[in-house]
Amino acid sequence: MLNIAIFGSTGAIGNEFTKQLAANNLVETINCFSRAKVNSEQKKVNHYQINFDNEEEIAKAAEISAKTKKLDIVIVAIGALHTDEFFPEKSIRELDSKKFTEIYHANTIIPALIGKYFLPHLNKNNKSIFAVLSARVGSISDNQLGGWYAYRASKAALNMIIKNFAIEINRTNKKAIILGLHPGTVDSSLSKPFQAHVKEGHLFSPEYAVEQLLQVIYNSDSSYSGKLFAYDDSQIPF
What we know:
238 residues; alpha/beta; 8-stranded mixed β-sheet; two-stranded parallel ribbon
């Protein structure tokens, strides 16, 4: 029976991960962490409010999640593309240190700190997964359009964190797999301002995106570790 932790559980994708995993008969417990307070009683699901900016709270979340049993799946479904104050840059004229700091903190630093405290608690006896939502636009070799400087750079940095995690964890836990996941363009608050430019048939519902990503997680093996995979199980080069 699987013990799972999900970060960003009130977002469109994180919430859908929670729903679909709760319906899986092999799942015993899901520990959900989000900035928002959730008043909900669900079988298998425990909700916790957390300040992701506080490293001590992340460390406590790891202790809570692995208190009675090692973790089988950890999903980090947090991140930021824009805020109420700014949108992704279209030109170097829009580069701004505050924007870089906020986007890096959300997309790179927080996932890295979650890994710091959760990777040691992964199951060593059976296959375990640490999966982080990354993005195709974080691929340096696949960048054909430019722009979106802070977001692209933060996801490229996250991909490096994923690679480093995979190398280090392999020394102590041969069963662990570290995955970057690209969900495609999902109908959510993150993508809402940019949906008009999405090709027909390429805007996915959270339900569809998570169904696809769970198949990637379930089908993954050691050859996936330290790499970025799209919703269709295709590898995206860093």
